[in-house]
Amino acid sequence: TWKWVVGPMFLYLCERLVRFWRSQQKVVITKVIIHPFKTIELQMMKKGFKMEVGQYIFVKCPAVSKLEWHPFTLTSAPEEDYFSIHVRIVGDWTEGLFNACGCDKQEFQEAWKLPKIAVDGPFGTASEDVFSYETVMLVGAGIGVTPFASVLKSVWYKYCHDATNLKLKKIYFYWLCRDTHAFEWFADLLQSLEAQMQERNNAEFLSYNIYLTGWDESQATHFVVHHEEEKDVITGLKQKTLYGRPNWENEFKTIAGQHPGSRIGVFLCGPEGLADTLNKQSISNSEADPRGVHFIFNKENF
């Protein structure tokens, strides 16, 4: 037995040593931004840190806990000179990080008072393959929108510098969220992208559908009253916020009809139930003919 155990154990120990060495490298928090709905953004720098879109890192804050490591998706783009994460305050550890960064205080915090942070990573995810397709469907549920923040930022940078070399030609973006608060920090990015595409006369490059799933009668009434306005009253975007849940069968059939003979990447960051639904739709709407349309499903769950 020992012959079969020694090899894997040696590789495991090597991997743990590499991770320990990476976690000891100095990380500098350059900025802490408080977003609505108790969400904070940490912008950091680390020597030699290189990332791709949609990757994640493990974070440890010794001031909160000396042993706990927590995974967070990177929300920055590879083109930026820093890397960032968005942390929603939903538990003891995130509450401790919130307080350690001085976010519970009204006065301005000096940089030297910010806590030390250890970072391990980045680690790859399915979202890295986004730029391998000409057409993609990006589906985020709630805070699962974070990897697509990185993707959309990177698309923006690439589009601004040299759009002709970008293989990706069409993005269908879906965001499902229970309440309006979570829209606020992400809507700014979509507004910037929307304006950029209109300036370059390519507003059709990005099609986005935002669904508010946890709505009530008063919200629906408010929606009807303001539906004719130029911009959405919730997000400030030209695309109006939709209520309820998308009809995925209709969405897949519509996209398949608009892109015959294409390989379409479907990327999800969300719960397992939604993953099953999208996987079934990807299979049922793909044609048997190799020259027909094919949906390639990729997921990461939380």
UniProtKB/TrEMBL annotation:
The record describes its membrane topology as:
Multi-pass membrane protein
Arranged from A to Z, the UniProt key words for this protein are: Cell membrane, Electron transport, FAD, Flavoprotein, Glycoprotein, Heme, Ion channel, Ion transport, Iron, Isopeptide bond, Membrane, Metal-binding, NADP, Oxidoreductase, Phosphoprotein, Transmembrane, Transmembrane helix, Transport, Ubl conjugation, Voltage-gated channel
Among PROSITE patterns, the record links this protein to: FAD_FR
Instruction: Output this protein's name.
Output: NADPH oxidase 2
Q: State the function annotated in the UniProt record.
A: Catalytic subunit of the phagocyte NADPH oxidase complex that mediates the transfer of electrons from cytosolic NADPH to O2 to produce the superoxide anion (O2(-)). In the activated complex, electrons are first transferred from NADPH to flavin adenine dinucleotide (FAD) and subsequently transferred via two heme molecules to molecular oxygen, producing superoxide through an outer-sphere reaction.
Q: Which cofactor does it need?
A: FAD
Gene Ontology cellular-component terms for this entry are: monoatomic ion channel complex; NADPH oxidase complex
A Pfam family annotated for this chain is FAD_binding_8
Q: Tell me the Gene Ontology biological-process terms attached to this UniProt entry.
A: defense response; monoatomic ion transmembrane transport; superoxide anion generation
Any idea where this protein resides? Cell membrane
Q: Where is the FAD-binding FR-type domain?
A: 19-129
**InterPro entries in UniProt:** Cyt_b245_heavy_chain, FAD-bd_8, FAD-bd_FR_type, Fe_red_NAD-bd_6, FNR_nucleotide-bd, RBOH/FRE, Riboflavin_synthase-like_b-brl
Per the UniProt record, the source organism is Chordeiles acutipennis
Give the catalysed reaction(s), semicolon-separated. Answer: NADPH + 2 O2 = 2 superoxide + NADP(+) + H(+)
Gene Ontology terms, MF aspect: metal ion binding; superoxide-generating NAD(P)H oxidase activity
